[in-house]
Each structure stands twice: as structure tokens, then as C-alpha cells.
Design brief:
With 437 residues, the chain is an alpha+beta fold. The protein has helices at 3-19, 38-44, 48-51, 62-76, 124-145, 169-174, 179-183, 197-204, 253-274, 284-299, 315-322, 324-341, 365-380, 411-427, and strands at residues 23-27, 33-36, 82-90, 96-107, 113-122, 150-156, 163-166, 212-219, 225-236, 242-251, 306-312, 347-352, 355-360, 384-385, 392-393, 397-403, 433-435. It has a five-stranded antiparallel beta sheet, sandwiched between helices. The two termini are 40 Å apart.
Length: 437
Amino acid sequence: MDSAGLMREKDIFEKTFEQCGVGLAHVSPHGDLIRVNSKLSGFLGYESATLVKMSFQSITEASHVQEDLYLLHQVLRGEIDTYSIEKKYIHAKGHHVWAKLTVSLVRDENGEPDYFISVVEDIDDKKRIESELYKAEALFSKIVAAFSAHSFVWVANPELTRIHYINEGYRNIYGRDEYELHAKPDAFLSYVHEDDRLFVEKVYKAKPLESWDLQYRIKNSSAEIKYIHDRGMPLFDENGQQILVVGTADDVSHEKEQQQALLEAISKLEYLSKTDPLTGISNRREVFIQLDREIQRMNRGQKPSTLVFIDLNDFKNINDTYGHLVGDDVLRIISEQLSQTLRKIDVVGRWGGEEFVMLLPETSAEQALIIVERIRKNIAAISFPISTTSGSFSTTISFGISESPIKNQNIENYIQGADKALHQAKSNGRNQSVIFN
């Protein structure tokens, strides 16, 4: 290969390394960082010149160092070719960030270890969502483990005029002395909630008494409402004559509460599965689901829709200057601005990092341009507060707009159009809106 070809290959390598969408690093066999790209520098909050003076051990959270070293030595010994782990890195600001690390070894012409290639993928948002899901699952586990079994068991004659046996469940559930049932076996009916009493009395006063399975409410001696699951059956002798009636009444009040808590937990899990935990708007997964539904709608010959990609300009500078807490506040405020502007049928979501997306059904690109221009101007006019001082700052956003045809559209083309328009808006100087042609 001639020198021009070599130079071109080198140029391609340099651009690929630097412009890769994930963090990349070359690491010496001893763990020293030899070379890093800007994506890794931005993720960890260090300048590249600072990072290359450090080792991977110094930027790895202590509990993950041994696992990383163990796998690294396996690669050096030739026992494995590569490995991937999820680990915590120490950010320049002092907090921890999660990443998926994939490591492979490059050997020299003599087969000796030369350097490692480390691919560092940002999974910090994923871990935050997993944490929220873990909390919800823990709540669910507590609900399931909280069952309480208090039962009132009794045995009477078929006419319910004489009680043969009562356990202490009557006292525990109704809060009353069981001897009152010896005097008047159907006395418990007077404690059934007035809205349920009629149908309960109908079952107990049937002649002959048949098997039953009821749920109703009672008032105990403290006037508390309790939910009862009441079941019973007659017992027969060898001649088919009723000789006894056996009943059990379970206090299922806790179960009712648990059912409500379970519904709330399920609702929370469903919310978490669809929602970005930081901003409260749709997450990337939910946006894809809505995009798929919209494509199906348009392919049935309905009106076109428009997809808008949104990028917060210079967000890294905001995080570096004011800190991640302020950066998070900015993302939340912008999410609120986007949500307040849109209709109920529209979808707004966080695509990732400082990128957002809006799906506007039954809207042309020209109509969308009017909407996003209003949003762009509103956000440019906002004074974002700095939490540690009384000061404020402003920022801007860029929009890429892509209108979908009524038929023969797919998600990939739809997204690609909006993405290209956004890149054009940023290339043109940012703080503007571009329609994909």
C-alpha cells in the first residue's frame, strides 16, 4: 500500500476512534490509560490529557476493581479472549456512574500483550430505571408476605337454633363475646353492614339451608368496617338427613387492602416501564411503541404525521459549569415545556441524554414548524436558576422535523429523516428548526 493509502487508513481510524458513539480507550497491560476518545472523556468528566495520566484502577469504584483485574489476567493468560462486565466508574465530580465495559487484547507480532481495547457504554440511565423497578418489586414482595389469617369457625344444628361450637375467631373479628351466639345463634346478622344485610339474611334464612360462599362487610364492636369471606355447608348422615351446619368466616380486610396495594404496585411498575425516571415523560422504549402504532395507522391510509427530534445545545457545558443536579433540573424544565405545549394525542419522550422526541399525529411538517418555533423561542427566553447561587443562565434547543407519508413508511426511515434534519440544524449554527426534505 502506498503512503497515500496508509494516510487515508490512518485518517479513517482516527475519525472512527474519536467519533465513535461509545467510550473507547487503549489501555496498557498494567492498566494505564494510553489513549481515550472524547465520548469517554465526556462520560467520566475528565479532559483527555488528564485521563491518559491515570489508570483504569484509579477511576474504578473499589468494589469492582478485583473482578475487573481477575478477568483482565485471564485475558493476559490466554484463558479467555474478551470479557464484558457492568461496573461503576468514579466521575471527576466524585459521584459514581454505571457503564458496560467490554475488553479485548491486542498482541504484538511476537504474540506478547501490546494493549487492551476497552469499550465503555453508558448505562447509567438503565441502572437508575432498574433501581426504581427494584424498589417497586420490593414493595410487591412485602404486600405478598403480609397475609393475615383470622377465621371464625362455628358448628350449629340445621335450623340455626343451637350452636355446638365457636372458636375465638368470633371475638377476634367481631370484637364481641361468643356467648351471645349461644343465646341467639343468628345474632351476628345484626352486625352485617346495612347495605349487605338483605342478601346475607336471604341465604341464612333459606329452608333447607344450602352451601354458601359470600363476601360482605360487618361493623365490629369499635364500629370498624371489616370485610368477611363467609363459607359454609350442611352435613348429612347416612340417610341423607341434615345433622349439622359448619361455617367459616374469614376476616379478609387485610387482603382487600393488599389487593388495592397490589393494583397500585402494578400501576407503578407499568408507569416505570413506560416513563423516563428523571423527567417523567415517555422513555425511549415507549416512544418506539407509539411510533410503531402510528406507522400502522398511517399505513391504513390515515392522515400523515410528523416526527421531531430535539437536542439541547451545549448541555455538556451546563453539566461541567453548574453540575449534574442543575443539568437534571434543566432537562425536567424542558420536558415540562414540551409536555405543556402538546395535545393529548401527541407523544413526547426522552430519546437519551439531552435528546428528546415529539410525535405529532395528523400534523404536517409546516404545522409542526409553527409549534416547535414557539417552543424554541419560549425555551430561549427561560432563565434557568442555579441551585447553589442566586444566579441564572439561558440555553437553546435545535429541532429536526420529518413528515411521514401516509403509506409505505417504516420506523427506521422516519427516525432517520428527523435525525438528519436535526444534524442539519446543528450544522447550520443550532437554535433553529430544519424540515427534512
